[in-house]
Specification:
alpha+beta; six-stranded antiparallel β-sheet; three-stranded antiparallel β-sheet; 9 strands
């Protein structure tokens, strides 16, 4: 099923999330480009799909440099995050003057159940239901909250020292780290 355009209504499914469609456009002066780029060439990303205009090519080397940034650009980020403010990526060829401008063009709503077969953990289902009701559950297992001293919220495993000196506590949603080392770093 294709993604829906974003709806801010209260009847949004519990497993809904938003991603931005992106347009990546070649910018710069043609005389400065040594690769096979042409100003105005572009491709778009919608969800996991990349599309090019018919008959247009795009360098796999440039694409390899751009691809790691696209999933982050698809997600909302803080206004102060460099991912929100920096929109141009240089060509990976140091002698080429091309740049690739990444623009967010439209927001789409996707459903977790339509893009993966991995079910949401029960704790996330409950937290989503509480958030829709307007009361996020405090200290829910898997929330990733870190209490003072490095202990994660409910469901935390015993802390284990890391090579970098940070304590780590496993939670149902992954790992939570303390801000300051509590043990000496290993040599």
């Amino acid at each position: 099923m294709p993604p829906e355009n974003r709806s801010d209504s209260a009847d949004r499914p519990d497993d809904a999330f938003d991603l931005w469609d992106l347009r990546v456009t070649v910018v710069g002066e043609p005389r400065d480009m040594v690769c096979d780029h042409r100003p105005g060439d572009w491709f778009e990303v919608s969800g996991e799909n990349l599309t090019l205009p018919e008959g247009q090519a795009f360098s796999i080397y440039a694409l390899a440099a751009i691809l790691p940034l696209l999933p982050a650009k698809q997600r909302d980020t803080a206004a102060t995050d460099w991912m929100s403010t920096d929109a141009e990526i240089a060509c990976p060829d140091p002698h080429c003057g091309a740049r690739f401008r990444i623009e967010r063009v439209r927001r789409r709503t996707f459903r977790h159940s339509e893009v993966t077969r991995v079910p949401l953990p029960a704790a996330l289902d409950e937290a989503a239901a509480h958030e829709q009701a307007g009361a996020p559950e405090e200290g829910a297992a898997g929330s990733g909250d870190v209490e003072p001293g490095g202990a994660a919220a409910a469901g935390a495993a015993p802390e284990a020292p890391r090579a970098d000196g940070r304590d780590v506590a496993a939670t149902s949603s992954g790992l939570a780290f303390t801000a300051e080392p509590t043990t000496a770093p290993l040599p």
